[in-house]
Amino acid sequence: MNLASRRLKAKRSGPRTILHNATLINGDGRVTKDTTIVIQDGIFVNIKSGTAALEYTEKDPIIDLAGRFVTPGLIDMHSHAGVREEPQLWATEDVTETSAPMTPWGRAVDALKPHDQAIRVINSGGITTSLILTGAKNLISGEGAVIKMKRTDSIHELLLDTTENNPYGKPLRYLKMAMGENQKRQFEHTPGGPATRLGESYWFRFAYDKARQLMRKQDRWCEKARSESGRLTLTTEYPTSLQWQTLVDVLRGDIRVNVHGYETEDVFAMFDHADEFGFNITAMHHALHSDLIAREIKERDITIAAFSDSWGDKKELYNVSSYMLRTLAEAGIPVALTRDHPAEHGQWLAYEAQIAHHFGLDADLAISSITSVPARALGLNNRYAERRQLCVFVPLILFNIILESDTYSQDMMQTLWYGIDILCVSVPLPSKYTSTGKSLFERTNLSGNDH
C-alpha cells in the first residue's frame, strides 16, 4: 500500500474545512475549474469538480474562493534557509565548512536554525518545501535536508519524513558537490589547493578513490561474513569511516547527488568523474550553459535546477541565454526553478516561473518547474501525485484571495491557517475583522515586504 492509500484509509475525526468554487492547477499544470476541496486533520481528504456533490455539515467552515487559483505548495530544491540565517551574520553563517576542500561528512541538519526569520517569509510566497543544501565554497560540502517551511521550535518537526513509502524504510539523502570559480577563489592560497580546475578534478578523484577502496573492503568483509567458515576468519570489525562513508553511500546508490556548476567544462568534468567511479548525478544546479550541451544532459536523465535569468556577477555567469530553459524543455530535459536563498530571496520562487514563461517556457512547464519537477527530483513524488491523489501532499497555497464577503470571520481563517501543517494562505481579511485592516500575513509578520 502506497503513501496515498495509507493516508486516505486512516480514520479522521477532526474539523473539516471546505474550499468551494476553486480553480485547481495540479503539479503538471492541468487546470480544473469549479473544484471543491475538503481538508481534514491537515490532509486533503476529497476533491470534486463540476456538479459532483460533497457532503458536509453546517459546522464545517466553507470558504467560497469565487474561482481563485489553488495549487500544490511550491518546492525550492536549492535553498540555504536555516543555515544562512537572516539577518546574515558571521556568527550564524554555517553553510559551508571551509576548513578543507572535501567535507562529505558535513550535514546541513547540524546547523539548521528553525527560528530563521526567512523560513516564515519564504513560506508566505507559497513555498512549502525546500531542500536545504550545504554551500559551494568547497568541492564536497556535505548532505542536505528537506524541510517544511513552517513555524516550529523543533528541528525534528521542521524535517520532512523521507522514510515514508521508501524501500526498507531508508531515508532519502542528498549530497552537495560543486565545481568552478568559487572553489578556486576559496583555496587558491591554501597549500594543496585547489587553485585551478585541474586541482578540483584531482580532489574529486582522490576522494572517490578513497571511498571506492573502503567500499571494496566492506564488500570483502561481507563476503566472508556470509558463511560460517568465513566468519571464523574475521579478525576486525566491519570497516567504516566517518570521513568517507557518505561517498561510499553515493557509490552504492543511496544518495542523490546535486552538483553546483555553471560552465560546460565543469559539467563535463563531473560527468567524467561519475563515469570513472560509477555514480549517478540527480541534478545539475545553476548550469546556466546547459543549453549548449542539452544532448549529453538528456542522455544521463539529469534534472537542471536553475535560475530563470540570473547572470553577470561573475565570469561563469556571462554569455547566458534567457531562452535556456525553453531550449532545455524542448529537448525533454526536466527543469526545476530555484532561488538559491539568500542569493535571491526565496519568497519569490513563483516569480522565477513567470520570467521563464515570458522567455518561452510553456505555462504548464512553468508550473511544474516549481511543483512536480522538483518533487520528482527529490524523490518525493510519492507525496506529490496526480490530481486524484493531491490530498496526500499536505501543502496548499491560495494566491491572492480577497475575501469580499462578511461571511468569513477571523476565527474561521485562523482555523484554516492553524489547522493545516504547512498551509500558506495569502488572505487579506476584511477590515472589520482586523484592528489594523492588515492581512493575516502582515499581522503575523509573514508579508516579507521589507525583504
Strand content: 15-25%
- Specify the biggest β-sheet: 7 strands, mixed
Approximate helicity band: 25-40%
Number of domains: 2
Uncertain parts: 385-451
Helix count, per DSSP? Answer: 15
- Note the overall shape: globular
Number of strands: 16
Highest CATH level, the class of the largest domain: Alpha Beta
Mean pLDDT: 82
Protein name: Amidohydrolase-related domain-containing protein
Give a structural overview.
This protein is α/β, with parallel strands linked by helices. It folds into two domains: 128 residues, Urease, subunit C, domain 1; 291 residues, TIM Barrel (Alpha-Beta Barrel). 29% of the residues lie in helices and 18% in strands. The two termini are 44 Å apart. The C terminus is likely disordered. It comes from Paecilomyces lecythidis. InterPro entries: Metal-dep_hydrolase_composite, Metal_Hydrolase, Metallo-dep_Hydrolase. This is Amidohydrolase-related domain-containing protein.
Chain-wise SSE layout:
Elements: H1 3-9, E1 16-25, E2 31-40, E3 43-49, E4 62-64, E5 69-72, E6 74-79, H2 117-124, E7 127-132, E8 140-143, E9 145-148, H3 155-158, E10 174-178, H4 181-187, H5 197-225, H6 228-232, H7 245-251, E11 256-261, H8 264-277, E12 283-286, H9 294-299, E13 303-306, H10 324-330, E14 335-337, H11 349-358, H12 363-368, H13 372-377, E15 396-398, H14 410-418, E16 424-425, H15 440-443
Parallel strand pairs: 1-4, 1-5, 6-7, 10-11, 11-12, 12-13, 13-14, 15-16
Antiparallel strand pairs: 1-2, 2-3, 5-15, 7-9, 8-10
Organism: Paecilomyces lecythidis
Protein name: Amidohydrolase-related domain-containing protein
